[in-house]
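User: I'm putting together notes for a lab meeting next week and I want to include a structural view of one of the chains we've been expressing. I don't have a solved structure, so I'd like a prediction I can at least talk through. The sequence is below, exactly as it appears in our construct file.
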Amino acid sequence: MDYVLTTDNVTKVYGKHRAVNRVSMHVEKGAIYGFIGKNGAGKTTFMRMVAGLAAANEGNITLFGSTELEKQRKRIGTLIENAGIYANMSAKDNLEIVKRNFGITEKNAVEEVLKFVGLWESRKKKVKNFSMGMKQRLGLAIALFRNPDFLILDEPINGLDPEGIKEIRDLLLKMNHEKGITILISSHILGELSKIATHYGIIRDGELVDEFKAEELQERCARCQKLVVDNENLAVNILEEKLGITNYDVPQTNTIRVFEKLDMQEEMNRELILGGVNIRESYLAGQDLEGYFMELLGGGSND
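Assistant: Thanks for the context. Below is the predicted structure for the 303-residue chain, given as structure tokens.
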């Protein structure tokens, strides 16, 4: 497997607080990796470490198969927290400054990137008069300036109206499909993220609790028999040995979701009870994407 980013037990500690705790992430080349977690879960801190804006206390980061991070980070574009945009200047003038700072000599570099993000017609307009969506597109233009192979984007659609969200979504897909750029993107707008993400990582209280592909997500949200029991290990053994059930998962302690033989609810319950399992809940369920994510995140409001 060709990975743009892998991390091994990356940890960041502030005082006694572990903001990021032993995170091992795998971002495949060409992926749009949706990074999901509540506020304070560690998303931004992790992204800052990968981008070189913060140092890890423990663990290792590998970019493009190399641990020479200073060199490999030149292949990364970032939009984390603040894009460093001058509000009293035009979009074109902002990018002229970026061009000089990056030492870019191509004559048409500013024109090309503004056209790509759809801001060429507004190039002379002061940024303070931009909509939020236009400002985000300008931030993406800055992130794209050095033709990166990998983009790290922290909440790029946060605060946007539906039109702005669609503009950014379409632009991200364009970057990925036309330029082959791998994208690591955090967002709390789960419905929108599900429209573009090919892979997901779930972070909770600083720990990466799961990684999976979009196809797996669809399977996990399928209709199922949900069982809440007092002993998940015993229950799983009974389901496998007595009923031949293998298509199930355990999304959290003592909760089992069975995705096959849904016409055998009574048999499942009977075998579990006979086997000494106390069933607290047993019912047919089907989840939407947000419901599944919220279960992984531990309930409560997301971000």
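A couple of points you could mention at the meeting. The chain has eleven helices and 14 strands. The longest strand covers residues 3-14.

User: Perfect, that's what I needed.
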